[in-house]
Amino acid sequence: xxxxxxxxxxxxxxxxxxxxxxxxxxxxxxxxxxxxxxxxxxxxxxxxxxxxxxxxxxxxxxxxxxxxxxxxxxxxxxxxxxxxxxxxxxxxxxxxxxxxxxxxxxxxxxxxxxxxxxxxxxxxxxxxxxxxxxxxxxxxxxxxxxxxxxxxxxxx
Amino acid sequence: xxxxxxxxxxxxxxxxxxxxxxxxxxxxxxxxxxxxxxxxxxxxxxxxxxxxxxxxxxxxxxxxxxxxxxxxxxxxxxxxxxxxxxxxxxxxxxxxxxxxxxxxxxxxxxxxxxxxxxxxxxxxxxxxxxxxxxxxxxxxxxxxxxxxxxxxxxxxxxxxxxxxxxxxxxxxxxxxxxxxxxxxxxxxxxxxxxxxxxxxxxxxxxxxxxxxxxxxxxxxxxxxxxxxxxxxxxxxxxxxxxxxxxxxxxxxxxxxxxxxxxxxxxxxxxxxxxx
Lengths: 156, 275
Known about the structure:
The structure holds 2 protein chains of 2 kinds.
Chain A: H1 5-136, H2 142-155
Helix pairs in contact in A: 1-2
Chain B: H1 2-16, E1 21-25, E2 29-32, H2 36-42, E3 46-48, H3 49-71, H4 80-99, H5 107-123, H6 131-138, H7 152-185, H8 194-231, H9 235-272
Helix pairs in contact in B: 3-5, 4-5, 5-9, 7-8, 7-9, 8-9
């Protein structure tokens, strides 16, 4: 319990330790601590920013999706309309074409009938004369009776 | 027989409470004291080799470990050592921030040194009281008191260091004149009361380190004496009392280190304040 030089010695040791601590021990650990603190804070910042970005992007994506859906349905509707229109047109065209074809065929048939009639008429005359010749057994003056026969043929 | 036992018990206690003293003896010159009486006769010109040795060892241990952690410190994921060290540093940083109101980057490292050093020195007390005196006795040293904070020189030495810093920062922040003014004109700001103020303030100033040192010393010394008394009991009773007392001392050891550190910061904070 004697007060002696130890007191001074302890004070000197204390001073040296404190100096060493201030100079070499505290700064690296403290700076590492604060650097990490900053890093973590930055990381948290970035994370919150990223989540905000994500939210924004999600919203945008939803918006785009909605728009494209709308567009798609519009296009689909248009296509439907267009296709039905085309079908209608085609049907119309086909009907017109069919009618035209039917009309053409009918005309041709009429023509054919007419021609056949003509031919028949011409032959009837000849046939009639030939027949008459046979009947009369004499030659008939073709010239004299032609007119009469033609008249007869025309009546057919 | 009873008287014999009593004598040996007294001898045992005295032996365990005697520091290994090296000093200038009036008759033997510079030598190791072989008895308590010789150590007392040496007076001021003596040094406690055990106190100095163990305290410096603890200081070097603290600085070594923390320096190592500082060298390997990364801003990434910390290892075990760095984690532990950072915990202490953060604790001290928070303590300093909440207690110290000036602007001085040196206070926190100072507090760290005080806290860790005192903590380590106090922790030596948990070691069994007989091991080191016995070991060093075999090596030829008569005395060995391994807990530096049970030596009033050590605690007052540190408190004196804090006192020097209080005076230094008072002068630095307020100027020598400002400091003198504070000592002479508070609490009563009148010229006729200067002597009264001066006595009051100087006593208040000097009491700071003394209370600081004696508080730590008193707690540690009392605890040590009780450890020694417990060691005198029959062997089957020793652990019965020793274990609870040691567990209780885990609290005392850290609490006293904390109190010394906190009060030092408070005193230094007051030294930085203008009135």
